[in-house]
Amino acid sequence: MPTVTIIDVYDMTPEEYRRVMDNLGVEKDPEPGIYLHLTAKMDFGYRVVEIWDEAQHFQDFMERRLAPAAEKAEINRRMDVQTVPLHNFFGPRLDELPGLIASLPGGPNART
By CB neighbour count within 10 A (0-12 exposed, 13-18 middle, 19+ buried), where does 34 fall? Predict the structure, then answer.
């Protein structure tokens, strides 16, 4: 069953977020089972929202890739994680999105 994972990471800086993403390497080598990854800067740090094909694939990713990447970056922040069944998805203009996010991390103009 498809799931939505919401990860709230407290007190993380933009530089720390980038280090973890670089250590993960998911922008060039995405994890099987993930459909979508969104990150928003919040007052408390970052909120990451992901859609996975099933909850177990997210759990495997956490153990096998995310935890080691954070450890390698020497980052230990409070994280609240929720995983819930996906109820609905609506993305009528997804084909336009790359043009809007070209300069963001993971976009086509991101550093290589």
Answer: middle
Reported as a single tens digit per residue, the pLDDT across 78-105 is: 999 999 999 999 988 888 877 777 666 6
Nearest to 83 by CA among 32, 30, 34: 34
Condensed to tens digits (0 to 9), the pLDDT of residues 67-78 reads 998 898 888 899
**What is the reported pTM?**
0.84
**What domains are there in the chain, each with its CATH number?**
3-100 (3.30.70.100)
Rounded Cα distance between 21 and 25, Å, is 6
- Contacts of residue 97, Cβ cutoff 8 Å, sequence gap at least 6: none
